[in-house]
Amino acid sequence: MIAENIIFLGACLCFLSAAGQLVLKMKKRENYNLFLLFTLLGIILLQFHSMATSAVIAHPEYIAFHPTVLFIFCPILYYAYYIVSFPDAGVPKMYALYFIPALISAAADTYLFVFRNSPSGDLGRMFLGGENPADVILFKTFAVAAIGQILIYHFRLIKILVPSLKGNGGKNIIFITITISFLSATSSATVIPGYILGDENYIRFSALFIAVCVIITYLTGVRYPGFLQMLSLKVKRGIYSRSLLKGLDVDRLMLELEKLMTEKNIYRDETINLADTAISLGITHHQLSQLLNERLSMNFNTYINSYRIEEAKKLLIANPDRTVLTIAYEVGFNSKSSFYESFTKITGITPVEYRKTYHFIIR
Predict the structure, then answer these.
(1) Are residues 167 and 24 in the same domain?
(2) Has residue 230 got a pLDDT over 60?
(3) pLDDT of residue 363
(4) Is 170 left (phi over 0), alpha (psi -120 to 50) or beta?
(5) pLDDT at 130 (0 to 100)
(6) What is the pLDDT of residues 168-214, one digit of tens each?
(7) Does residue 226 surpass a pLDDT of 70?
(8) Is the residue at 244 inside a domain?
(9) What is the four-CA torsion angle of 46, 51, 57, 59, rounded to 10 degrees?
(10) For residues 97 and 117, is the Cβ–Cβ distance under 8 A?
(11) CA 91 to each of CA 212, 226, 256, 272, 351: distance values in angstroms, whole numbers, following the listed order
(12) Which of 65-79, 287-301, 310-324 has the lowest mean pLDDT?
């Protein structure tokens, strides 16, 4: 009973963490991704809870689309790792292909839970009873395959994080993350015999450990409010310790990058991103990200916005009759709010205040 309560608590904390991502004032892509990640994990824990308590015997709908949820969790988890490792990069190439297993699983789950001839309590009863008709085997096969994919992503994260243990400072953040990921991988692996044998004890044990990892993660977030930012910084340092710039003519690349900004004015394109700019330079987006961090101590977005703001300052003074919004669009911003935010961050005052201050000095 205690184990089931901890599992339920873990699910509730997942949904609470998911809601917390949506109430932030300045939401970024990682916040939306974490919302999906925590929501999916909360659903998975509730489904495990229904298996551990044998509630699926009377209510097989509790585990409806369970393998599909697991498969969707995988690319969402991967993207969370990707954001931490390369916060300046856009969406990974071919990312949509990562959802193909989820689509295949969704088709199988649709058959099991929507078009199946006898969708009463048979599936839940046979699953936990160790019976293996075709429907149960189909369910187990996709569930085990999804767990296998989750394990791959966990170990990829550990591989990314290990180099970050080198160097000074912030090791506790990395160590906590590696530990949580290792425990999550171990507990995920434990559920595989639970699926194969239809044994709720294995499932209960696995879900309990996952719930404990969720609780530890939640408490870590309370202890370290800037947890993700610190983690991202340490990971980048770990990646950069294995320099991606060896063999490159860094000075030449910096000159070419400056030409792209000052002669071609690519910063005016509101869709410009790290990956496209890197291609123009003939390097990878990881290399460009490291180049900007090591040479200029800034990320790609800050670099682009610095050029946009410099041009905007000139236009604000040279064209006093033009609106702030038209100037914002001309220099590459896609909204007034993002323009104001970046301008204020760089100059310390708003565009309107900057224009008024200049004209006041002239008078």
Answers:
(1) yes
(2) no
(3) 47
(4) left
(5) 79
(6) 444 555 666 677 677 778 888 889 999 999 888 999 999 998 898 88
(7) no
(8) no
(9) 10
(10) no
(11) 31, 23, 25, 13, 31
(12) 287-301
In a domain, 265, yes or no: yes
Mean pLDDT of 6-14: 94
Which whole-number Å values give the CA distances from 20 to 26, 43, 182, 276, in the listed order? Answer: 12, 17, 25, 33
Of 58, 65, 199, nearest in space to 122 by CA:
58
Task: Provide φ and ψ at 48, rounded to 5°.
Answer: -60, -40
To which residue do tokens 């409806």 refer? 64
Q: Supply φ then ψ for residue 209, to 5 degrees.
A: -65, -40
| Cβ neighbours around 344 below 10 Å, total | 15
**Contact at 8 Å (CB) between 54 and 70?**
no
- pLDDT band for position 163 (50/70/90)? low
- Are 217 and 328 contained in the same domain? no
Which residues have C-beta within 8 Å of that of residue 254, sequence separation ≥ 6?
A: 291, 295
- Which is more confidently placed, 325 or 77? 325
Query: Do 254 and 210 share a domain, yes or no?
Result: no
- Is residue 122 very low, low, confident or very high in pLDDT (cuts 50, 70, 90)? confident
Which amino acid is residue 71, in one-letter code?
F
H helix and E strand count, the chain:
16, 0
Chain centroid, CA 202 distance in Å: 29
Interior angle at CA 103, CA 158 and CA 47, nearest 5 = 65
Across all residues in the chain, what is the average pLDDT? 82
What is the count of structural domains for the chain? Answer: 2
Residue in the structure block whose two tokens are 């789950």:
109
Alpha carbon distance, N-terminus to C-terminus of the chain: 78
* Confidence (pTM): 0.64
Contact 180, 216 (CB under 8 A): yes
User: Distance between CA atoms of 66 and 106, rounded to whole angstroms?
Assistant: 9
Q: Do 110 and 233 sit in the same domain of this protein?
A: yes
